[in-house]
TrEMBL record:
Domain NXPE C-terminal: 22-72
UniProt source species: Certhia brachydactyla (short-toed tree-creeper)
Cas1p 10 TM acyl transferase domain sequence ranges: 253-734
Bilayer topology: Multi-pass membrane protein
Gene designation per UniProt: Casd1
Family: Belongs to the PC-esterase family. CASD1 subfamily.
GO biological process: carbohydrate metabolic process
Protein name, UniProt field: N-acetylneuraminate (7)9-O-acetyltransferase
Keyword field contains Cytoplasm: no
Membrane-spanning segments: 269-291, 325-343, 355-375, 396-417, 452-468, 474-494, 506-526, 561-579, 600-617, 659-679, 685-709, 730-750
Record-level Gene Ontology MF annotations: N-acetylneuraminate 9-O-acetyltransferase activity
Keywords assigned by UniProt, alphabetized: Acyltransferase, Glycoprotein, Golgi apparatus, Membrane, Transferase, Transmembrane, Transmembrane helix
Primary site of residence: Golgi
Catalytic activity: CMP-N-acetyl-beta-neuraminate + acetyl-CoA = CMP-N-acetyl-7-O-acetyl-beta-neuraminate + CoA; a ganglioside GD3 (d18:1(4E)) + acetyl-CoA = a ganglioside Ac-O-7-GD3(d18:1(4E)) + CoA; CMP-N-acetyl-beta-neuraminate + acetyl-CoA = CMP-N-acetyl-9-O-acetyl-beta-neuraminate + CoA
């Protein structure tokens, strides 16, 4: 379903999510802060013209600029407001009726060289109904007056933003005797007249007065909370003011989570080149496929007419060439990237804001846990953190994180703190897995490094190009990439200490511990020296990778948040492998990890530790303070989980194939969610099927998971070609990759220059 004109939707339709969050139809509304409002309206003049309800909107609007403003102006008179720091002027002009006086004031802005306001908000009717006791003659005169004002508003709309605010409904039961004649029937008649006249006047004109009709929908939900039945409650006023700010400011400020009224971003030079590359790949693959099909038909078995026997072809079906595999992969990737672009860059599909409720988070969690338990199978091996178990661990964590993101649960601090542990657990596995590999295998070759770096970064590099986003935007991949290089450097630097060498001499174990202590010291120093950290990553070319919004603060924050957990993973791997080598643990099928007594004590301590951490995380009151403690204490729950999962033999011997399947594509799921499951770079939700939230989630989730699985296969296929085992061929590939990134940097510089 096409998104359509999001500005028109923002001004005319929407619904409440819960009691306080307004959701425009098809697009996302940004919540403007005071500083953002000032930056948008700098050197601007805004005018509100109308009655007491427009005055309410005026006050709600200026409170977005300065929250300290008090409603102390003259009740039935003009009220000026000025913010000298940003040169913003906002005026309220008291014209409670659409009459000659209002017309004269509007006309004065259309004549000569008089400075015109940048934004004009007009609306009035209830006074006409009240003064003339709801007579039909008053309605007829109202139509005549609007007809005379409409051309003037159209003229102003050529250079200014002009909004006509329709009259909100009243709560008739609460109206005083002097206002009983103001009925919703009369208000509808006045609104209908205004819309018909304003639309007819702009039929043959490019300029158009924007009809602000959404306030009616908002008032229908909130007018019962009105103090007098006529004037709007605070929620309505604030929502209307925020909509007005979005309509005008989104195209100027371009907030990520404000898709309403934002034009589609133009294609960059790099995006155009990528589009041409994928198009050529698709064409090339189709040509090669046609050639192979024709060759196959020529060599296909045919019947000998004389003997009546079938002749077999001399040539068998040719093997698939490397070029064909490459083109096939890029062909599929091109189609997938087109879907990415259409979902989150083109204004083709709708986007909506997230809205958190406990049920939207916890019900899906229970559902997937039941599914996961249902698909229980025996493991091939019963070692601690075996492959099936780590895949299962990644899988259920990834599904929980996905539910956390789509439900907007980050606003609920206890959930946020538990999700932080899941992210830390991923990094713990990074430390554990890579340390174990290097320690056991002793393989520090370039091939291993390139394979890991390619698999981690391929999708993100493609998305940076196609979606025009910096590398650091996909923060988790830079995080695991840097930590992999740190683990590699720690173990590969002289002296290289591996298990084989350490078995010959126990002193090497102390050498390795010394390396780990040096690593911990460096981590500790950098975590408390932001300046040193930022200097390291501000040098070119690191700055090109780790800067976001012109600085590396976001990168420092992300790195600092889980700074110790990779070290904890490495240390756990070292201790576990040492115990395993000395046969101090029992990993047989069905056997407890230690003796029954030790196992029971450790299991009890683990359960208590796990629950204690959860109680602490659930009682957190301040996110900043809890984030400060998180790097040091997150390992408690991680280790507790590992022990609970592995000490009982029967628990260690089974795994969930359902979770393990998702675990194998967890990285792709984490990255793909940014654009084809969520929307607006994770700030909102993609809407493929509006009006049916559950069906929409089912359809978008199915496509999202299929795409993630397909990208995982493409990455694996390309890794075999791009990163070959032969060192000479690998060196040539690395030179090609260096050339690719040099070209990317060159075009990026050209792109930045053209933008400036």
């Amino acid at each position: 379903f096409k998104g359509g004109d999001t500005c028109e939707y923002l001004l005319s339709s929407g619904r409440f999510l819960g009691e306080k969050v307004w959701q425009p139809h098809s697009c996302m509304m940004h919540k403007y802060k005071n500083s953002e409002a000032k930056n948008c309206l700098i050197d601007k003049h805004v005018v509100f013209i109308g009655d007491s309800r427009i005055r309410q909107l005026f006050y709600a609007f200026i409170k977005l600029i300065n929250p300290q403003v008090k409603e102390e102006g003259i009740k039935h008179g003009n009220i000026p407001f000025e913010d000298k720091s940003a040169s913003i002027k906002v005026d309220f002009l008291w014209y409670p009726e659409v009459n000659g006086s209002m017309r004269q004031r509007i006309k004065s802005w259309t004549e000569g060289s008089v400075a015109k306001p940048h934004i004009i908000v007009v609306g009035a009717a209830t006074w006409s109904i009240k003064i003339h006791n709801g007579s039909n003659e008053a309605l007829a005169q109202y139509k005549i007056n609007i007809t005379s004002i409409a051309p003037l508003l159209e003229k102003l709309a050529i250079s200014s933003d002009v909004y006509w605010v329709l009259q909100d409904p009243v709560y008739e039961d609460m109206l005083s005797e002097s206002r009983k004649m103001i009925t919703n029937e009369k208000i509808d008649a006045y609104n209908e007249a205004a819309v018909r006249i304003l639309n007819s006047s702009s039929r043959n004109s490019k300029a158009k007065v924007k009809v602000f009709s959404v306030s009616k929908l908002i008032a229908q939900e909130t007018i019962m909370k009105s103090a007098d039945g006529l004037h709007l409650p605070e929620l309505s006023r604030d929502t209307n003011a925020m909509i007005l700010m979005n309509v005008y400011c989104n195209k100027i400020m371009k907030p990520i989570d404000g898709s309403c009224c934002q034009p589609q971003p133009p294609l960059t030079l790099i995006q155009k080149i990528a589009f041409c590359f994928f198009t050529l790949s698709i064409i090339g693959y189709l040509i090669i496929s046609l050639i192979h099909r024709n060759n196959y038909r020529k060599n296909k078995s045919c019947t000998d007419l004389e003997s009546g026997e079938e002749k077999k072809p001399a040539i068998s079906t040719p093997n698939v060439s490397t070029l064909e595999i490459l083109l096939h992969c890029f062909c599929k990737l091109g189609l997938i990237m087109t879907y990415f672009y259409l979902c989150d860059r083109a204004n083709l599909f709708m986007k909506e804001n997230k809205f958190y409720t406990h049920s939207s988070f916890f019900i899906p969690i229970v559902y997937i846990l039941v599914l996961g338990v249902f698909y229980t199978e025996n493991t091939k091996e019963t070692k601690v953190l075996n492959r099936e178990q780590t895949d299962e661990w990644k899988g259920w964590m990834q599904l929980v994180i996905l539910i956390y993101h789509i439900s907007g649960a980050s606003t609920f601090l206890p959930v946020y703190m538990h999700i932080r542990v899941l992210v830390a657990a991923y990094l713990f596995q990074t430390g554990y897995g890579h340390f174990s590999y290097f320690w056991i295998k002793g393989d520090f070759g370039v091939y291993r490094v390139c394979q890991v770096l390619f698999r981690l970064n391929f999708l993100v590099v493609v998305l940076c190009i196609v979606m025009d986003r910096p590398y650091q935007f996909y923060y988790f991949v830079p995080l695991v990439t840097v930590w992999f290089m740190i683990i590699y450097a720690t173990l590969a630097v002289w002296p290289q200490i591996v298990q084989k060498k350490a078995n010959g001499n126990c002193l090497w174990h102390f050498g390795l511990l010394l390396k780990l202590i040096c690593l911990l010291t460096c981590i500790y120093f950098l975590s408390y020296s932001q300046g040193a950290f930022e200097k390291i990553f501000s040098f070119w070319p690191l700055s090109k990778c780790f800067e976001l919004n012109g600085n590396v603060y976001e990168w420092w924050f992300r790195w600092k948040l889980d700074r110790y957990v990779v070290f904890h993973g490495m240390l756990f791997a070292f201790i576990y492998l040492a115990l395993q080598k000395r046969q101090m643990i029992s990993e047989g099928k069905g056997d407890p990890l230690f003796s029954n007594r030790v196992s029971n004590v450790l299991l009890f301590i683990s359960i208590v530790s796990f629950l204690t951490y959860s109680i602490w995380a659930s009682s957190c009151k301040n996110k900043t303070e809890c984030n400060e403690l998180h790097p040091s204490v997150s390992v408690v729950q991680i280790l507790a989980f590992i022990l609970i999962r592995n000490i009982p033999g029967y628990v260690r011997s089974v795994y969930s194939s359902f979770f393990a399947w998702f675990g194998k594509i967890s990285l792709e799921l984490f990255i793909c969610q940014y654009h084809i499951w969520l929307a607006a770079d994770t700030k909102g939700i993609l809407v493929l099927i509006p009006g049916y939230p559950m069906f929409n989630v089912l359809v978008s989730t199915f496509i999202f998971v299929c795409v993630a699985h397909e990208i995982s296969q493409i990455t694996n296929d390309l890794a075999q070609i791009v990163v070959p085992k032969d060192n000479t061929t690998l060196l040539k590939r690395l030179l090609c990759i260096a050339g690719f990134f040099s070209g990317l940097h060159f075009f990026s510089a050209m792109q930045d220059q053209s933008r400036h």
